[in-house]
Amino acid sequence: MDTALVKFKNKLEKLPDCNNDEFYRMADYIEMKAIANADGFYAKSDFTNEKPKRAADLGEGDIEENKKLKKLSNAKKNDKWENLADDIYRNLESRVKEYKEFYPFTLTDNKLGIKFNGVTTIEHHYYVLLLYCSNLAYTGYTNVLTSSFERVCEKALKKILPEGADVRLFGSSNVEEGAESDEWKTTKLWDKLVWLSSFLHSKLVAQKDEISVYNKGDRGLDIVGRITFGDNLSHFPMFFGQCACSPDQWQSKQMSISPDRWTSLLTLNHHPTRMIFIPQSFRKANGEWQDKHSITQSVLVDRYRILKYMKNDEFFKELSSYGVVNTLLSYKESSF
């Protein structure tokens, strides 16, 4: 078993490092456990029998909440964990309804377990890709998964915008083979800014000698888009996109595409629309945002909104992560 798969195996034994009320993250964990089960099944009882002991003895999961639970009687502890499992499975039930043909899982008739039905369509592949991108702490394939996620987001934004919109990858950390932004890996930030000012029909404010010749970064701008009107004039719709896989960092990363971060470098004829792409299903069981107040002056494009534009799209087969996802899918806990 390769090193990355060993990491996945070991990590999958642990609860997510999240608050107990972040049911969307706990639901992801249960989906990964169902995939890794040789029978493709994970029962609610599996969770309530195993996880409370891990939380109490190993200090996994929601640390502060676990400290409070220790003070309760065993009966009340059991009730708390049963209620937690119920909330998680309600989130899973909502996914069955919302994701439809993209969702490779079903709930049992009594809603006491989740069944992984295999990846039989390209839609299933996209769902599983975003599932693993949402949980990079569990995988050993971070660079490949994050790079592929950027390519998927680029493709999604092209489909979101009207035909004729120009969308480009701008991120310098992408390692995806064959990406159009390959040149950005070695291009200096100054040269990127020169290109960006031309792309946006803006003017550079920064001076060349103000930018380190060793700086090959992208200042947090992963995707840039524009809608021109065929007249070669300025003042057209512009889009700044950030792709963030970490469930704990995307809120702060919204600032990297804030106009305030860019106006010291180039003039912006108006504020670009800020797009933050995340692979998480950032939703409660009732379909509302998990926490809408964490979305600041941005268009949030989460798992559901990305997948909406990936139906019947064979693009995923061109990505480096195609093989990685199949490798992760092949891991079964009982095999090792």
Describe this structure in words.
With 336 residues, the protein is α/β, with parallel strands linked by helices. The chain has two domains: 145 residues, no CATH class; 178 residues, Trna Endonuclease, Chain: A, domain 1, CATH 3.40.1350. It contains eleven helices and eight strands. Helix 9 links the parallel strand 6 and strand 7. The longest helix is centred in the N-terminal third of the chain and has 26 residues. The protein is elongated, with a radius of gyration of 22 Å.
Short description:
This protein is α/β, with parallel strands linked by helices and 336 residues long.
Shape verdict:
elongated
The proportion of residues forming helix, as a percent range, comes to 25-40%
Q: Main beta sheet, described?
A: 5 strands, mixed
Overall strand count: 8
Question: How are the strands ordered across the major sheet?
Answer: 4-5-6-7-8
The CATH architecture term of the largest domain is: 3-Layer(aba) Sandwich
The helix/strand series, from N terminus to C terminus, equals HHEHHHEEHHEHEEHEEHH
Radius of gyration: 22 Å
Going by helix content, strand content and strand pairing, the class is alpha/beta
The total number of structural domains is 2
